[in-house]
Amino acid sequence: MKLEQLLERLEYTCVQGSLDREISGIANDSRQVVPGTLFFSIRGAVTDGHTYAAEVAEKGAVALLVEEPVEVPESVTVIQVKDTRYAMALVSAAWYDYPAEKLKVIGITGTKGKTTTTYMIKSILESAGHKVGLIGTIETIIGETHIPSSNTTPESVKIQEYFHRMLEDGCDMAVMEVSSQGLMLNRTAGIPFEIGIFTNIEPDHIGPAEHKSFEDYMHCKGLLFRQCRIGIVNGDDEHLDQVLAGHTCKVETFGLSEKNDLRAENLKMVHKPGYLGISYHAAGMIDMDVEIDIPGKFSVYNSLAAIAVCLHFKVREADIKTALKQAKVKGRVELVKVSDDFTLMIDYAHNAMSLESLLTTLREYEPGRLVCLFGCGGNRSKARRFEMAEVSGRLADFTIITSDNPRFEKPEDILDDIESGIKKTDGKYVKIADRKEAIRYAILHGQPGDVIVLAGKGHEDYQEIEGKKYHMDERELIQEILEEENLR
Ligand SMILES: CC(=O)N[C@H]1[C@@H](OP(=O)(O)OP(=O)(O)OC[C@H]2O[C@@H](n3ccc(=O)[nH]c3=O)[C@H](O)[C@@H]2O)O[C@H](CO)[C@@H](O)[C@@H]1O[C@H](C)C(=O)N[C@@H](C)C(=O)N[C@H](CCC(=O)O)C(=O)O
Ligand SMILES: Nc1ncnc2c1ncn2[C@@H]1O[C@H](COP(=O)(O)OP(=O)(O)OP(=O)(O)O)[C@@H](O)[C@H]1O
Ligand SMILES: N[C@H](CCC[C@H](N)C(=O)O)C(=O)O
Ligand SMILES: [Mg+2]
């Protein structure tokens, strides 16, 4: 494709060289450059892509997109723009012939609930005959292909490539998680979202590597609502007005309070041994009873958002009901059957905020005891250890402190930090560093009516120790334990 054509939607200055050049590939990583490549110089958190200019020219890059002057041979075209990340998103879209314009793209932002809601939407839309691609924290799904993720919202070059592959695979829709980082770093720039969803917002992701303040975090999340046709938003969130500031889309609200366009009434928590679910009546935009096998009040919010989206695509009530009943998300309040007496689940809560919301909503099921097993990742925020310990000590009847991903730290040191936090509460606990043994303890000590949560690892199928990832899947550990203990 010709360089000039790739730049058609951009404002730019051609600093040197010709625009009449054939481009055979695009890349923002010098290690992927081959002769004929257009290279995007991105200023990153670790390094600056501009420093690779000479190296990529040497490797045969024919054009460079930059924010500041670089020194390369005259034969290389240099295009200067204000923001290379923004430009990269638009050029990537052009490279794949604007695939998002041929799909209906649904984007979801919010502090919690994004992953869960994407799977619910995919499940409902597919029950109505659509073919839906998905991009998110766990994976990207294109037909039968599952690609594990390293970011919730990948870099724009990847997103556009995935959209292109979705179209080739016959998808007519795409549902994706849009993290605030993704919005801030223009990973989603130029995508014409048909629908944007806002789940909720709480102070999170604030720090030197992420957002500078809560205001900045809210502003970034709000950018989605300047870039979508319809905004479907949580009308109960206290920060909604700030998130919607400057929006350009039509807005519909969902939630529990009366004022919302789509609301849930008559919530009923369903607790049977081995099963936790929730049922409610959806009113407003529709009038129907809903039953979900994913526990927690937050499942009501996630499913309301999914229903509101699907109503725009004329999905039949019966299809919505069946699909929601079947929706399951790996490692998100995922129930695993181990006993007829008590209930066990795997969840991804790995900070105080999500652990608090999880344990609070599980309490509403009036369990015999609420048991919480968790550890904390090594080489991550230390504060998390004391905060999660405080939450578990206060809200669970019993805590099993164990390892998560120790990374480069000594597991015992992490457990000691957690223990010192829990000691500040009157919570009862036991410390078992080996996660499998900790799970064994949980299962063998399960009492009738208990709800046991294995928190923190969610969908992960590994344990990271000293830079190496060892295979470890809690579902498999549970099955091994049941066999070893003759409980199956
Ligand atoms: C802070 C941040 O956003 N980092 C992301 C970013 O890396 P970076 O900007 O730091 O890149 P860098 O390493 O400094 O390199 C700068 C440029 O030089 C290039 N380079 C680098 C080395 C080299 O030899 N040659 C070369 O050309 C790089 O390709 C890049 O273009 O670009 C990488 C590739 O796209 C991302 O994987 C990486 O995410 C890291 C893993 C990360 O932790 N990001 C977090 C903050 C994040 O984005 N999280 C959100 C939210 C998660 C959620 O709440 O669900 C997400 O969407 O995942
Ligand atoms: N709407 C919600 N509000 C609050 N908590 C939720 C909500 N939905 C799910 N949760 C809880 O938060 C955890 C993470 O949910 P989910 O993965 O769907 O969120 P996410 O927004 O994708 O998070 P992340 O930013 O970590 O990818 C779940 O395991 C559950 O405990
Ligand atoms: N992406 C997050 C998830 C961590 C999940 C938890 N299992 C841990 O290792 O702390 C991180 O790397 O901090
Ligand atoms: Mg997610």
Automatic annotation (TrEMBL):
It is found in: Cytoplasm. Its EC number is 6.3.2.13. Its main location: cytoplasm. Pathway: Cell wall biogenesis; peptidoglycan biosynthesis. Keywords: ATP-binding, Cell cycle, Cell division, Cell shape, Cell wall biogenesis/degradation, Cytoplasm, Ligase, Magnesium, Nucleotide-binding, Peptidoglycan synthesis. Its cofactor is Mg(2+). UDP-N-acetyl-alpha-D-muramoyl-L-alanyl-D-glutamate binds at S30, N151, T152, T153, S179, R187. It comes from the Bacteria. GO terms for cellular component: cytoplasm. It catalyses: UDP-N-acetyl-alpha-D-muramoyl-L-alanyl-D-glutamate + meso-2,6-diaminopimelate + ATP = UDP-N-acetyl-alpha-D-muramoyl-L-alanyl-gamma-D-glutamyl-meso-2,6-diaminopimelate + ADP + phosphate + H(+). NCBIfam families: murE, PRK00139.1-4. Catalyzes the addition of meso-diaminopimelic acid to the nucleotide precursor UDP-N-acetylmuramoyl-L-alanyl-D-glutamate (UMAG) in the biosynthesis of bacterial cell-wall peptidoglycan. This is UDP-N-acetylmuramoyl-L-alanyl-D-glutamate--2,6-diaminopimelate ligase.
